[in-house]
C-alpha cells in the first residue's frame, strides 16, 4: 500500500475510534449518574483504551508524512543489503543527489583500507542543513570500530544535525566475519531504525 492510501486508512480508523470513544465516555458517565458505577467505569475504561489506540494511529500517520531518504555507498554489496531493509523511502546509492527537503536521511557505508569512500565524502559535501534536518548513520566494517565517526565529522562540518544514535555491525573481509552482515545483523538494524523515527 502506498503512503497516501495508508494515511487515508489510518485517518479513517483514528476518526472512527475517537468518535466511538467519546460516545462510550458519555454513556459511561450516564450509567454512573444512574448508580451503575461499575458498569459506567467499564465504559470509561473502554474510552481510555480506544483513545490510546487513536494516539497510536496518529503517531503512525506522523511517521508516514515524515520525509525520509536512504543513501549508501557500497563496495561489496553490504551497505546495499542493509539499506534494503530500511523503510520509508527507496534505497539509493550516493550517486543520487538529495533534491527535496528531508526530515531524516539514513546514510550507510563500509570501510576500505581504513577510510570511507571518496564518493561518500563527496556526497556529504553536497548536503546542507536547510535540506537535511537530521542524519542517522549506519554501516559495517571488519577491523575498525565503525565507519560512523568519519561520516559524522564530515556531516558536522556541513552543519548537519547527526543523530547520536547509529548502527554498526560486522562486514566480512574475506574469511574474516564471513557471512556478515547476516540475518541477525539485518534484524537488529530493522529494530534500531524503529527507534530513530
Ligand atoms: C579489500 C578490503 C579492504 C577492507 N578494509 C577494511 C578496513 O580497512 N577496515 C575495516 O574495518 N574493514 C575493512 N574491510 C571490510 C569492509 O569494511 C566490510 O566488508 C564492509 O561491510 C564493506 O561494506 P560495503 O560492501 O557496503 O562497502 C575491507 C574489506 C575489503 C574486502
Chain-wise SSE layout:
Elements: H1 3-33, H2 37-65, E1 68-72, H3 78-84, E2 91-93, E3 102-109, H4 118-125, E4 132-141, H5 148-157, E5 167-170, H6 183-194
Parallel strand pairs: 1-2, 1-3, 3-4, 4-5
Helix pairs in contact: 1-2
Bound molecules: flavin mononucleotide.
Flavin mononucleotide binds at residues 74-79, 110-114, 140-144, 171-173.
What does this protein structure show overall?
The protein has helices at residues 3-33, 37-65, 78-84, 118-125, 148-157, 183-194; strands at residues 68-72, 91-93, 102-109, 132-141, 167-170. It is of the alpha/beta class. The chain folds into 2 domains: 3-64; 66-195, Rossmann fold, CATH 3.40.50. It has a 5-stranded parallel β-sheet, with helices on both faces. Strand 1 (68-72), helix 3 and strand 2 (91-93) form a beta-alpha-beta unit. The two termini are 20 Å apart. The model has no long low-confidence stretch (mean pLDDT 92). Flavin mononucleotide (FMN) is lined by residues 74-79, 110-114, 140-144, 171-173.
Compute the CA-based radius of gyration: 23 Å
Number of helices: 6
Strand content: 15-25%
CATH overall fold name of the largest domain: Rossmann fold
Provide the CATH superfamily of the largest domain: Flavodoxin domain
Which assembly state applies to the chains in this document? single chain
Shape: elongated
- Spell out the helices and strands N to C: HHEHEEHEHEH
Computed structural class: alpha/beta
Q: Could you describe the largest sheet, including whether it forms a barrel?
A: 5 strands, parallel
Which molecules are bound in this entry? flavin mononucleotide
- First CA to last CA: what distance? 20 Å
Helical residues, percent: 40-55%
Unreliable spans: none
Could you give the count of β-strands?
Answer: 5
Count of distinct structural domains? 2
Mean pLDDT: 92
Reading off the top of the CATH hierarchy, the class of the largest domain is best stated as Alpha Beta
What is the spatial order of strands in the main beta sheet? 2-1-3-4-5
CATH structural architecture of the largest domain: 3-Layer(aba) Sandwich
Amino acid at each position: 500500500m502506498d503512503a497516501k492510501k495508508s494515511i487515508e486508512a489510518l485517518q479513517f480508523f483514528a476518526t472512527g475510534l475517537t468518535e466511538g470513544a467519546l460516545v462510550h465516555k458519555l454513556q459511561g458517565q450516564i450509567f454512573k449518574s444512574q448508580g451503575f458505577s461499575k458498569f459506567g467505569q467499564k465504559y470509561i475504561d473502554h474510552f481510555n483504551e480506544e483513545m490510546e489506540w487513536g494516539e497510536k494511529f496518529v503517531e503512525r500517520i506522523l511517521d508516514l508524512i515524515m520525509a525520509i531518504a536512504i543513501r549508501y555507498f557500497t563496495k561489496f554489496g553490504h551497505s546495499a543489503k542493509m539499506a534494503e531493509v530500511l523503510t520509508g523511502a527507496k534505497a539509493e546509492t550516493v550517486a543520487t543527489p538529495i533534491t527535496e527537503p528531508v526530515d531524516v536521511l539514513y546514510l550507510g557505508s563500509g570501510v576500505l583500507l581504513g577510510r570511507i569512500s571518496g564518493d561518500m565524502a563527496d556526497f556529504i559535501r553536497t548536503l546542507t542543513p536547510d535540506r537535511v534536518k537530521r542524519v542517522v548513520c549506519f554501516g559495517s566494517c571488519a577491523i575498525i570500530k565503525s565507519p560512523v565517526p568519519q561520516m559524522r565529522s564530515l556531516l558536522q562540518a556541513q552543519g548537519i544535525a547527526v543523530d547520536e544514535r547509529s548502527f554498526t555491525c560486522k562486514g566480512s573481509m574475506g574469511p574474516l566475519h564471513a557471512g556478515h552482515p547476516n540475518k541477525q545483523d539485518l534484524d537488529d538494524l530493522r529494530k534500531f531504525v524503529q527507534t530513530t523515527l
